[in-house]
Design brief:
Rossmann fold, 3 domains, alpha/beta, 13 strands, 10 helices, 3-stranded antiparallel beta sheet
Amino acid sequence: MIGHRFVNFIPGENSKSKFEQMLDIFTQLLNYTSGDASEALDWMNQLDRTHKFTDENYGVGDFIEDLKQNGYLKENPQDGKFAITAKTEQTIRQKSLEEIFGKLKKAKQGNHSTTKAGPTGDINSDTRSFQFGDLMEQIDFTESIKNAQINRGVDAFSMHEDDLVIREADFKTQTSTVLMIDISHSMILYGEDRITPAKKVAMALCELITKKYPKDTIDIVVFGNDAWQVEIKDLPYLQVGPYHTNTVAGLELAMDILRKRKTANKQIFMITDGKPTCLKIGGKYYKNSFGLDRKVVNRCINLAAQCKKLKIPITTFMIASDPYLQKFVEEFTEMNNGKAYFASLDNLGSFIFNDFESGKRKTVY
């Protein structure tokens, strides 16, 4: 007689197929290879030889075939090189969102409102009497009918204006955010990879905004010797270059972008690991990597003051702890009346999420 076999339950074990488990590894490797699929697959082969996460029933070759069949991978027929698809790019962003913001307390997620009461948004527990100009959608009919019954009884039921109760709602704001990412050479110096966590946080923030707050805008600016705007789909491919740090160019481009936005709330998040070391004057670059060059620093401070006049707060996430940088960061932040964090790489996402939420609660009247 065949009975039941009981085994120990291990949460999470076998909850994913072999393909899904390997897809998690593949997307993580793509972050480190800047979207180079061939290099990521080569690393998977090396990891498999060391850690043996495949078996005779399912190997890396089977995984590659499944990637192609499921639309994650495409192969160039001329040279046989692999490239990831738009589906993979979106998967990387989604997994970054789950990895970084999924760790935060659920109670804090979605708390995206201001303290101002308004006609649209999430219903809260506050009520008040009806006033001329209130919308029908705001009337709490259960409480209003109760008032009418109390005031005039069931037999002579009628509803008057003074019976009506309005249920308050939290007014949600729209926010335009520019995320600046430093891609100067120092982002991979000193034995620490700082660009990969910065990219993952950027992808997570973009995915969060586009999915949960579609009326918001998010723009990505990268800066080295110069600054330029990149699309969300380009984020997995970002690489550090042989650049100095032209913070001025990044701020100027961010301000230009936000000037065109019609939203009341605007903000700049800047992820960097070093001091500004470069300016472009005319067609030439002025560079100085030694100490804090006042010619460069003063331009940054002036832009911080301009942003303050435009009501654009700047939050600086300095992913370095060099004491001599604190003076510049403090001066820059004080001039803008913004915020600054000397954030480690493992808590960068939490800082950015909380500041994004704080910015959403700030309404310009």
